[in-house]
Amino acid sequence: MDEKYYKLLKEQFVSKEAVLTEIINLSAICELPKGTEHFVSDLHGEYDAFNHVLRNGSGSIKEKLRECFPDLDPTEISELATLIYYPEEKLASKESQLSQDAFAYYCRENLIFLLKLARFAGKKYTRSKVRKAFPEKFRYILEELKHEVESSSEKQAYFDSIIEKLQHLGELPNLIIALADSVRRLTVDHLHVVGDIYDRGPYPDKIIDRLISMPSVDIQWGNHDIIWMAVLAGSSLAMMNVIRISSRYGNLDILEDSYGINLRPLIEYAERYYEPSPAFAPRLTEGEYLSQEECDLLNKLQQATAILQFKLESQLIARRPEFHLAERDVLHFINYEENRIELKGKFYDLKEFQAPTINPDEPEELTDEEKILLKKLLKNFKASQKLKQHIDFLLEKGSMYLSYNGNLLIHGCLPLHENGDFKCFRLEGEAYSGRELLDLFEYHVRKSLAHPDREEDLSTDLLWYLWVGESSSLFGKEAMTTFERYYIADKATHVEKKNPYYQLRENPETISRILKNFGMDEKGHIINGHTPVKERKGEAPIKAGGKLIVIDGGFSKPYQKETGIAGYTLLYNSYGMQLAAHEPFKTIKAAVEEGSDIVSVKRLVDRVEKRTCVKDTNIGKEFLKTIEDLEYLFENYEKY
Ligand SMILES: O=P(O)(O)OC[C@H]1O[C@](O)(COP(=O)(O)O)[C@@H](O)[C@@H]1O
Ligand SMILES: [Mn+2]
User: Fold this and answer.
1) In percent, how much of the chain has pLDDT > 90?
2) SS in 3 state form for 146-202?
3) Residue 394: pLDDT above 80?
């Protein structure tokens, strides 16, 4: 085995000297400061706000500008920052305001600032990495210019002549755009998305397209992502939930236009059986306007899909006793003549409960029409190439959790008992908890998507469990009260009790125990999304003495009333960790013209005594192993 491995390794090098060069190269990289990691979560389709946070690197671009140009005042920094965030828009705006000469002067001046900044931002990377950050078209020229920008006076003429030529060819603006992209790339090295890209907001598809284009990104699945993945795994139940939520938030365009899914048969069905009901009024954001007709359609669609969801859920509960969801079999607790429901021994009147297709004797049964309808719809979902590409990407880059550079990233929680013990989930005679439980879930996520034709198998059903189950690390609550929220007035029935994790995570000892369970150093952090931090009510995003950070601050507009801000993001660079809170994002126009930015406050989470180097990171550890192997190969080169 070893022999074969070293033979293969040797094939990658033309000579013994080449091995040595690689050893020196990798060893040098290991000593460089670690790249900046950027964490975001709970994006919920809010592409514009996400795009802005990506572009400003949660404040890191401005920070780099201030370090690189200490003499510039805040307005000048802000002007330059906007050019880096939105180069196309900023240049267009300048071009329309300035004379031709003044615009040419503006381009030259700013190109020089950007070159100096690229040089500064690239200092902590190898030359080859900096080269790769430049787009191929301008790679050579940018390398030359970057090198010469601070050169001696005799080289000045050379530098000037290149710029003049570019200006003459009308290429200066393009070069600035390319350079701005490279600066952003050099400032933030890697992005973590800690779950919930989908639902509630208008453009999850644009977010995923953007993520696909990024060089270095990983995703920890959120409950709202899993439910979309479940549809492609073959779950009609998940499909009803996805359409229900899209109708609730007025986002059918995602399905019909972005993913090209034909909902016509469902629309006709909903129109035929349902009348609008106040509890199903779509939740629109401020300033969003829909006609009465559109609102009514969304209302009816939401009702139709809710009822179909409850029917299919009832069937799942019956075939999966091991999920312990019997208490959620709501359709079986209804007295259809009296229009009442019994829940945990108490009776409640149902308000505006329309169930024209339910047979009280067999409430979980689909009518023949519904069976055909669901088949058609599922086929339409599966036929969307774009949706398939997006879900494949979530599978490729995503996981249930990630241990990365000492930190543990999980969207929701680690299910615990009140006393802090890991909560068990029993399946096929085995008990799973802690890391093993999350590994089990991940195994089934992948299995369900590997077999999309198996629609009611254990793996596919487990994806639904991840959405509503008591031991789901993505849900983290006792039960989901969707039915009660729609049809029961008594608000006490709407409460979704959180898993004890959400209390216990305030305690550093809990965090240490969890990290240990994942085989990680107790000095690390847990990073969660999922539960909006209600700053307005005094809740703190940094918990357990800085060992746990919750970064769901409400990118999602409907939740901003509760959080009081518009999202948190986290930065982890070689000096430590910083949490940034964001104000609501207005528009690109406001950002370009007024320089409005959305990072409001930055809070230090952790500061390390010694700058963290590449050798201390996940990738660095791999490099160290490779170096060891290469050294062995170097010493025994002739043997292989
Ligand atoms: O705000 P809505 O649309 O009523 O959704 C509420 C539902 O969303 C959930 O909070 C899950 O979504 P999150 O992952 O964003 O928390 C459920 O627990 C709850 O029943
Ligand atoms: Mn969530």
Assistant:
1) 74
2) HHHCCCCHHHHHHHHHHHHHHHHCCCHHHHHHHHHHHHHHHHCCEEEECCCCCCCCC
3) yes
The SS3 call for residue 480 is: coil
CA distance linking residue 571 with residue 569, whole number of Å: 7
Span from the CA of 393 to the centroid of ligand 1 (angstroms)? 24
If one residue of 43, 197, 224, 562 were mutated to test the ligand 1 pocket, choosing by the most ligand atoms within 8 A of its CB, it would be 224
Query: What are the Cα distances from residue 302, in Å, to 116, 234, 243, 443?
Result: 55, 21, 8, 32
**Which atom of ligand 1 sits closest to the CA of residue 249?**
3
Asked whether the predicted pLDDT for residue 56 surpasses 80, the reply is yes
Predicted TM-score (pTM) of the model is 0.93
pLDDT digits (tens, 9 = 90+) for 166-180: 888 888 899 999 999
Cα 469–Cα 431–Cα 322 angle in degrees, nearest 5:
45
Place of tokens 């690197």: 57
Which residue lies with its CA nearest to atom 17 of ligand 1?
A: 480
Secondary structure (3-state) at 360: coil
Task: Please give the angle made by the CA atoms of 235, 195 and 521, to the nearest 5 degrees.
Answer: 125
Q: At 602, list the tokens.
A: 């930055």
Q: Residue 433 has which token pair?
A: 């908890």
Taking only the tens place, the pLDDT of each residue in 73-115 is 999 999 999 999 999 999 999 999 999 889 988 998 999 899 9
In the numeric block, which tokens belong to residue 159?
A: 């530098």
